[in-house]
Specification:
The protein has helices at residues 30-45, 67-70, 75-81, 88-91, 108-115, 142-150, 152-161, 167-172, 185-197, 201-216, 219-233, 237-247, and strands at residues 6-11, 14-19, 51-55, 60-62, 97-101, 104-106, 118-122, 126-128, 165-166, 178-180. It has 257 residues and is of the alpha/beta class. Helix 1 (30-45) links the parallel strand 2 (14-19) and strand 3. The longest helix is centred in the first third of the chain and has 16 residues, at 30-45. The chain is globular. Bound molecules: acetoacetyl-coenzyme A (CAA).
């Protein structure tokens, strides 16, 4: 499949999506978001792929939603264009998604990174929600995911006062998993994705769904979800193989069955 605003490739069992609008700081216009979701859905149903990495360039992950596309839009046009709803498509992806972020991850760019399951950052990464400078607020999950990730006090400062976080601050406040030199961030993300991609696919899928429930349900409901996901895995061949391999002191051969 060829795209206009993103590049895609598969390395071993990892699907890689590179945001590719360098002339506009990888601003997320509706074409890019549509292509991104299409590529994610393709990777999600590809049995040869076990994990996905989304990245940009060393200078910019994404500088937010495309301001030139939104500037003249009315409230009704924003509503009916469903632009921010496109971000919800990321939630439907069952395979793990890692954001490999260097440079600016601002506005919708920060929201895109936060919609992924993990973030690997280069030392040059900068995270922020500067929408207040444009007379608006984050509209693709920023006020919610940021608050859950870094807590209320810091989220308030970032959203109300456009405070950016350096990569090191993002690490300290729990927004990202790793910070590494800029020459290494993509490689680090790919290695992490590759290690996950060779694990038991159904267990990884259930694990991702279950951790995500921690954000959405009460503890009682989320524990019930986890328990059912756990019980379900005992109906898989991979569970039998995994436990047998352990007792036979050999590596398991996963089939995703
Ligand atoms: N939308 C459209 N175009 C953008 C853009 C954006 N979000 N961000 C940058 N660009 C364009 C610039 O207009 C410029 O285009 P021209 O060369 O044609 O003039 C080009 O990219 C390069 O940008 P700069 O010259 O500004 O580059 P810089 O290195 O001086 O600054 C930056 C980089 C700090 C990221 C700066 O571009 C910037 O502040 N961008 C906007 C960030 C922002 O406000 N993001 C929030 C968007 S709203 C949103 O995301 C809503 C939501 O929640 C969904």
């Amino acid at each position: 499949m060829s795209y206009e605003t993103i590049l895609t490739e598969v390395k071993e069992k990892v699907g890689i999506i590179t945001l590719n609008r360098p002339q506009a700081m990888n601003a997320l216009n509706s074409d890019l978001m549509t292509e991104l979701i299409e590529a994610l859905l393709d990777f999600d149903i590809d049995e040869e792929i076990g994990a996905i990495v989304i990245t940009g360039s060393e200078k910019v992950f994404a500088a937010g939603a495309d301001i030139s596309e939104m500037a003249e839009m009315s409230a009704v046009e924003m509503l009916t264009s469903s632009f921010v709803e496109l971000f919800d498509g990321i939630r439907d992806i069952k395979k793990p998604i890692i954001a490999a972020v260097s440079g600016y991850a601002l506005g919708g760019g920060c929201e895109l990174a936060m919609a992924c399951d993990m973030i690997v950052a280069s030392e040059k990464a900068k995270f922020g929600q500067p929408e207040v400078n444009l007379g608006v607020i984050p509209g693709a999950g920023g006020t919610q995911r940021l608050t859950r990730a870094v807590g209320k006090a810091l989220a308030m400062e970032m959203v109300l006062n456009a405070r950016n976080l350096s990569a090191q601050e993002a690490l300290e406040f729990g927004l990202v998993n790793y910070v590494v030199p800029v020459e290494e961030y993509l490689d680090k993300a790919l290695k992490l994705a590759k290690r996950i991609s060779v694990r038991a696919p159904l267990a990884v899928r259930q694990a991702k769904a279950s951790v995500n429930k921690a954000y959405e349900l009460s503890l009682t409901e989320a524990l019930a979800f986890e328990r059912n996901a756990f019980y379900f895995l005992f109906a898989t061949e991979d569970q039998k193989e995994g436990m047998q391999a352990f007792t036979e002191k050999r590596s398991a051969k996963w089939q995703g069955k």
